Amino acid sequence: MSRSPITLSDFEIAEAPLGSTLASLDALTPGDWIPAVVPGGVHESLLAAGRIEHPYRNTNEKDIRWIEERDWWYRGSFAAPTDLSADERLRLSFLGLDTVVDIWLNGEKLGSHQNMFRPAVFDVTERLQAQNELLLRFAPPLAGLEVPASAAEMFARLGDVFAALAPEGDDLSGGGEGMGSEALPLSTLRRKATFSWGWDFGPRVPSVGIWRPVELSREKKAAITGHHVRTDTIDADGTAHVTLVVEVDGFHAEALSVEASVTTPSGITHELTIRVQGGRGEAVLALPHAELWWSHDLGEPALHNVRLQLFADRELVGEVRDRVGIRTIALDQPDDPEGGRLFRFLLNGVPVFARGAAWLPASMLVGSVAPETHRALVRTARDGGMNMLRIWGGGIYEQDAFYEACDEEGVLIWHDFMFACIDYPSELPELQAEVAAEAEYQVRRLRNRASLALWSGNNEVQLIHGFAYQNYEPGNWGWDFFYRILPETVAREDGRTPYWPGSPWGEAPEEGFMAANGVLDGDRHAWEVWHGFDFGAGGGDYASVGEARHYRRYAQDRGKFISEFGIHASPELGTLRRWIDDELLEVHSPTFDAHNKDNPKDKGDALLEIITGLPESIEQYVDFTMVSQAEGLKFGIEHYRRRQPHNNGALIWQFNDVWPGFSWSVVDHDGVPKAGYYFAKRAFAPILASFRLDGDELELWVSNSTAAEASVEALVTIAGFDGGGTQTHAVTATVAPARSQPVWRGPAPADGQFAWVSSPSGAFPDNRVYPREIKDTPFGDARLDHEIVDTGAGAAEITVTAHGHAYFVHIPSAVPGIRFSDNYLDLRDGTSVTIRVEGLPAGFDLDALEVAGYVGTPVRR
């Protein structure tokens, strides 16, 4: 039987001038070589050796630019397996090389590789010696490239368009970062993460090195090269029909078969034999009363254990194990009575309102992110009510741990292919071959994931191409990728996961070229808010730039599925202090602005001026930007939820961060959720009660995104911040599944009043509306009392009581990794809340847990 692969991780690295050769290594001394972090990269290795300061701290990023301008050599040694028989082979697999690399084994060149998104695999059966030396030379990935003519022309056209659209001279091109980076056009010729060269949320710190494991596999007679466990149909009686496909390379065998077993979550095992001919075999299995995989909001994410044992000439030679979900997923686009077409996912035939966010790599240093980090982040998303994460096309295809966590937590994945924000020279034969090989590898790798809901061709390529050219005719801009190679690969290698040409994309003819981000068809990116001009949802005359960027513009959006929308916010002050020295941490200081990659650096000030007023201290900046984001996301999500069934998705830009900076994320780089996360968590509840102000009238809506009819009782309170003028209204309503409707109307709160809704049975979270901007809302004086109780095993409970109406009540994260059951709350006078705290480190002093309100709220214990 084949053995488990041997993992090779003992490497050293050394730098060399650009264009170095094997002979150049003779000039290196032992001190030039340092231990390599594998999986990881050059930056991580230099950090571990104390050769560089952390690029995320202060402005250190500018001091490590030299790293991307050198050659980097890796060397490692390993012993060959002994007693190899004539029917065995050895394969050396580099599962991730970042990015342009030449590889030598025992002084002979094995080959070259130029794609970080697919492995490099070599048969080394006849090449190994008793002791073996590997050498890898990583060259600067953009060296020697010339800007494709198609990208140059697009940038010239786009510059004119953005110059006309930019409010008050804003630099919409990115100001030399992200889309404005001189590296971006060159990067279209290399299959490397686009965000490597800097973006409007992160620095230019391009990773380099061995970023995924290196394995030596010993295989006997035959090997399983792929498998697919796909759910074909689910009958009305609950019987699921499942096809098991196995692909085999019988390199030294005549008769091949696979003994398969599928064990249900309740412990029932089904066994079957799969005959293999021509390298492929398949069999159909019927599972009565199937335990289906659901997103966590609709049911249980049930997973089945699959075992595939490969027999070659009746000898057991290999085994693959997997955990799969039995489910069907479809992209449904029927006509919408409101006009255009719906855009919604059907999971096991049930409509899903997608609630979630865009997922970014958890670090610029992609190779050294621990699996535990991915699992913790996915758990945070699930705990935040999110049922979908969208893997953004400027990042990476993630670690297995990410997909495993999404399967286990019941979180669907919208998966972009790795293309973003620029025309690609898609007519180049060599680039077509790389993209085809990459797509085939990734689709085959991920097709068994229960959480995989959609493959999307790219991020914003069509949108930006449309701005530049006003059409999407076939041409040398990515068309061959998004409309031929990628959909054909998904259909051939998967056949069950839907494919969509890009995000955003739509095809309503009456919207012209802006249909790509229109409101009648497909998905859209709602960037009217924050950027302040019309992206396809409609414009208007605004009194100021701040009004043009205000989150009230979400109320105009009639889109069918919002796959991006967001507002900038600071991380918590504790995160900033971990990465920026106190003496440098001032609003708009050079170091402060260096951690904000959006341009201009004060873009959010026009919005803050309206919502909170301009900050005068770092403490105010943190609170004010968090308020702006949190209130804006709440407003937007509630609007989109009220539009169900015409709208069926709200995905925030963005979920997480690539470094500790200022961005649109709701969870910062240290894993600390911002206020926007908690506001969104409540707005993402399966059943939501929300207010809509319409002039002098107030409406209460109930949105039911579950699979069952909801009968709810609600208590509406209109009250003054001073405690006077209280009115209460009892409301009952029945709302169909996947629907939203108004259930009560009354006069809008007067000046000095607010509206509050609660559920006596706990069917939905409490909610409220303030009729004026936060800076103009007369909250009055408030005081917070709190009591902390140790509940053991790294946990505690904090009970907070408000005296006066308290806004933005929260517990700062004393250290990263702490989890709160809720945070950033409003408390009415005389009310209390108990917040559960988990994940406290051993020996943690509970006195370090503090309670805070909006800037300046007195607290006592």
From TrEMBL:
It catalyses: Hydrolysis of terminal, non-reducing beta-D-mannose residues in beta-D-mannosides. GO terms for molecular function: hydrolase activity. InterPro entries: Beta-gal/glucu_dom_sf (IPR036156), Beta-mannosidase-like_N2 (IPR054593), Beta-mannosidase_GH2 (IPR050887), Beta-mannosidase_Ig (IPR041625), Galactose-bd-like_sf (IPR008979), GH (IPR017853), Glyco_hydro_2_AS (IPR023232), Ig-like_fold (IPR013783). It comes from the Bacteria. Residues 224-327 form the Glycoside hydrolase family 2 immunoglobulin-like beta-sandwich domain. Residues 32-212 form the Beta-mannosidase-like galactose-binding domain. Keywords: Glycoprotein, Glycosidase, Hydrolase. Residues 789-838 form the Beta-mannosidase Ig-fold domain. Its EC number is 3.2.1.25. It is an enzyme of class 3 (hydrolase). The keyword Glycoprotein applies. Belongs to the glycosyl hydrolase 2 family. PANTHER family: BETA-MANNOSIDASE. This is beta-mannosidase. It comes from Gryllotalpicola koreensis.
